[in-house]
Structure formats: C-alpha cells, structure tokens
Design goal:
The complex is a heterodimer of chains A (421) and B (114). With 421 residues, chain A is mainly alpha-helical. Chain A has 20 helices and no strands. In chain B, 18% of the residues are buried. Classes of the chains: A mainly alpha (421), B alpha+beta (114).
Chain lengths: 421, 114
C-alpha cells in the first residue's frame, strides 16, 4: 500500500475556515471577499497539484502557507494596501526573511478563528444570520451546503449573507480579544449561535439531508476552539460542551436506517458513542466544579442521567424531575414545562403526568408543537385508554413537521388503535 | 511492460464555484485512482500538472503566440506515465480517472521504445 498520508475528512472545509479567519485578520474585515477568493484559489491549487505530487506531509501547513504567500503577493501588488497595518508589515518581513517557507504559528491561526467567531456574532445580526455567517466563514460551507443544512432556499441564504456582510462592513470590526468590555456580551451571542447550530443538526431528519451530524460536530469543534482560549474557559463553555457531547453521543441510536425516529425507550443503547459520552461526563464534572449553574449545565446533567442508564427501565426519573424543577426555574418556557411534566409522569405515573400536562402555563404557545399532544397520548396509552390515546396521536400526526415525525406518530396511532380481529 | 502517456484534456472548469467539500471529494477520487495504480505498480509517480499559460512556437518563422494550444477548446491539464502490458490494459486502467466523470478526456498514447 502507498505511504501517502490519508486526507482527513472535511480537511478542506476546516482549513478553509482557518484560512479565511487568518486572512481576514491580515486584510481587515472590509476585505472579507478578498480573503475568501484567496482561500478558494489556494484550494484549487491544492486540488490541481496534490494528485500529481502526493498529499504533503502536513497538508494543513501547506495550505496555510500557500494562502499566506498568495496574500503577500496581492498586498505587494495592490496599491490599496499602502497604508500598512502592523500585521501586514510583519507578514512582509516574514516573506523577506524566510522566503515564505516558515509555518504560520498555530496560536495565530486559533486566535484568528476565535476573533472571527466573535465578529460573526455581531449584536445587529439575527441569530440565524450569525449562524449562516459562521457556517460560511468559519466552517467552510458553500451557500448551497448551508441552504441544504438549514433547510432553507439558496437565494434566501445568499441574501442573508449579503445583508450580514454589509452590516459588518459598515459597523463591524474584527473583534480584538484583549479585555474589551463587550466580550462577555458577545460570548453570550456565541453560545446561542453554537447552540442553535447544534440543534439544527440534532433535530434534522436524515431523510431530509445526509449527515445531519455534521452540524453537531461543527458546533462541538467550535466550542472546543473557544474552550482553548482564556476568554472561553468559563463554566458555561464546559457545560455547553458537556451538553453537546452527551446529546451527540446518542445520535446513532436515535434514527433508524430508514430515517424514522426511535423512541428513547426503544433505542439500542449499544449504538451510543462511548467515547463522546466519556468526554461529555468529563466536561460535566468540570462544569460542576465551578458551582455556576447555567441552563446548559442542567440540560447537560439531564442528558447525563439518560446516558448513565444502562437500560431505559433503569433511568432515574426522580433525579431527572429534580433537574427539570431547577431548569424550569432558570428557563420557565412552555417546552421546558412540557418536558418536566413528562418527567413527572415517568417518575410518578401516567395520571400525575396528565395532570401536570394540563397545568402548563401558556400552553397555547404549544398549540403547533406535536410532542405536546403526543405526550398526552402516551400517558393515556399507559393508563390503558386507547381511544383517547389515538385521538391525541392523530392530533400529533397532523402537526408533524417532517416525514420522520409523521411516520413516528402514525405508528403510535396504529399501536393504540383497537385491534381488529 | 510498455510505457504509456496519459494526457488529461480538460474543458475550462469553473472550480471557483465549487465548495471546499466538493473539491475535497474530487481530490480524494484522484488520490484513490493514483494510489491504486501505484500499489499495483502501474504508476511510478512520473507526472505533473501543467499551468494554463504558455506559448506556441510555430514553423520556420518561429512565430510565437500565446498558448496553450486550444484549437479544440480543451487543453492539456497534465500528464502521467503509466506502465501496462498493452494498450488494452492501459485503456482499462485509465477508466478509473475521475476526470471522465466531468466529460473530460484521457488520451492514451504508447511511448515509443527503442
């Protein structure tokens, strides 16, 4: 067999994110388009040359060097860069000294990526725009890949990106990470954007797109990057990491081969990713050390209890209920109330569960949420009332938002229907 | 074993619009094909990509024009030297070239021996 290094999956995408961030640091945010062009050209060069000369020993170093050298050539030739920033001057000096062969310091690359992450989470952008921008600049997704991942139309993604770029050009700067007072605020926005990204990946259905987990792993990767920097080494970061790892660990068991949803009760736990689970528990422990209780920490802890149960029957619903009480205190939303009510039912019995479901404040906000009637159906079924159960599962089916949900509720409906002899 | 030259003719491809992921997929296909030919001993590593620029020098006038030679709109993007039993085998091996997916052309030419 050949001794050529195997290309790591998604190398180009990841490196594109690193290169765009690094070049934006050099060119400035107003020249983001130029940075993206240089990166594109660099990848094309790799695609042209590597098949003939082999993949370099260090592919990511090769790419970064090539991008940097190309950037330097452009700066040299372009009059508009005459007003040299410190970064430019530094770069030109490197070029002179090392004839461009020296590696780009890892720390500078990580720094640039973090700055990009914070910059994308500009307060004037909606969370959706922030996520779209992150996917484009930091994760190396194309417009069509973003549209596919977020189940949007290409031209609406294009428009969103255009508006976001304009906002950043007009009022944004490439955020400095040195003790600025608005870092904490931005950090909140970064957390929310990452959480949103993760959820998009987690709740997608595999029949709608291939590899929905990619978004989950991208979210985890970005948070890991965040956690390696002093600004990001906060309890909430570790809690978010724990949450994502513990959810992502169970992704493989969640969907059947044909894309249908499998109820937690019936999931094959041997398919759960033990490595990710282990990582999740480690981050959970770390997050708990600080005694700072965030929503992420509580959600992660709940996920941890599920992960820790060898079988569904061994699930410690009592502890889960306590955590939901705490979560509701921090985040009193109807969806949290719903999940708490479900935990009540599991811990104390279906009648208690139904009673709790009927007591949810602002329940009308759940009128389009299929899992609300589904929960009622489930408890009626457990109590032996198949007709009521059927009615609720029917309702859930009509509210289904995608094919896997529809199929799932349809099967529950069938399971609760009167058996014809 | 005879030596053959594979000439890769490509139409101008708009790689500018391809995503990093798509380019990587393409790259992996090339690597897989080249690797398999290295493993089987058919390809020893001689080959190169050609730049899309150059010059044409013609005739006793030695007139010079901008290249590459693009009479047929396609240009030679690169070449490799492959060893095979005969033309038939060389042709079979060339069918693994990812270029062919995109309506590309691989010209297989025996290299004259002494």
């Amino acid at each position: 067999m050949s001794d050529i290094p195997v290309l790591v999956d998604h190398l180009f995408r990841r490196e594109a994110g690193k290169m765009v961030s690094y070049l934006t640091r050099i060119f400035g945010f107003s020249r983001l388009n130029l940075a993206e062009d240089v990166v594109q050209d660099t990848l094309i060069k790799a695609l042209e040359v590597w098949p003939f000369h082999g993949v370099p020993d260090n592919p990511s170093a090769w790419l970064m060097r090539a991008a940097r050298n190309r950037a330097i050539d452009i700066i040299r030739r372009d009059d508009r860069f005459r007003l040299a920033t410190p970064e430019l001057t530094h770069l030109l000096r490197i070029r002179e000294e090392e004839s461009g062969e020296g590696p780009v310091p890892e720390k500078e690359i990580q720094d640039a990526q973090l700055r990009m992450m914070f910059s994308c989470c500009h307060p004037e952008l909606t969370a959706d725009s922030q996520v779209t921008l992150i996917l484009k600049t930091l994760c190396g997704f194309s417009v069509s890949e973003i549209a596919h991942a977020l189940l949007s139309q290409e031209d609406s993604v294009e428009k969103r990106l255009g508006r976001a770029r304009k906002t950043l050009r007009d009022s944004g700067d490439f955020v400095e990470l040195t003790n600025r007072s608005d870092i904490p605020g931005r950090l909140e926005a970064v957390y929310q954007a990452i959480y949103l990204l993760f959820n998009e990946g987690y709740h997608s259905s595999s029949s709608d797109r291939k590899e929905p987990e990619e978004l989950c792993y991208e979210a985890i990767r970005l948070t890991l990057l965040l956690s390696e920097h002093p600004h990001g080494q906060r309890p909430k970061t570790f809690a978010l990491l724990a949450l994502m790892c513990l959810h992502a660990a169970r992704l493989q068991g969640r969907l059947a081969d044909d894309g249908t949803l499998i109820q937690l009760e019936f999931q094959d736990r041997s398919k759960w990713d033990k490595f990710l689970m282990g990582q999740g528990f480690q981050y959970l422990e770390k997050a708990w050390e600080s005694n700072v209780v965030s929503e992420y920490l509580v959600e992660a802890s709940i996920a941890g209890i599920h992960c820790g149960a060898k079988t569904y029957e061994e699930t410690e619903w009592g502890r889960i209920l306590e955590l939901y009480d705490l979560l509701y205190h921090l985040k009193p939303t109807p969806v949290v109330a719903l999940n708490r009510a479900i935990a009540v039912g599991k811990a104390k019995g279906p009648e208690e569960g139904l009673a709790e479901l009927n007591k949810i404040p602002d329940a009308e906000k759940l009128k389009d949420y299929p899992f609300y009637p589904a929960a009622k159906g489930e408890f009626h079924l457990l109590a032996g009332r198949t007709i009521e159960a059927g009615a609720y599962f029917n309702k859930a089916m009509n509210l289904a938002r995608n094919q896997p949900e529809k199929d799932f509720f349809e099967r529950k409906l069938e399971a609760s229907g009167p058996k014809l002899i | 074993m005879t030596k053959f030259l594979y000439l890769f003719w490509n139409k101008p491809t708009n790689w500018k619009s391809q995503s990093p992921e798509e380019m990587e997929r393409r790259m992996k296909k090339w690597m897989t094909w080249m690797d398999s030919m290295k493993a089987s001993g058919h390809f020893k590593g001689a080959g190169d990509r050609l730049e899309d620029t150059g010059s044409l020098v013609r005739g006793p006038q030695k007139s010079v024009t901008d290249g590459p030679y693009a009479e047929a709109k396609d240009t030679i993007g690169g070449y490799i030297v492959v060893e095979a039993k005969d033309l038939k085998e060389a042709v079979e091996l060339s069918k693994g070239c990812p270029m062919l997916e995109g309506d590309g052309l691989v010209e297989v030419r025996p290299i004259a021996s002494m």
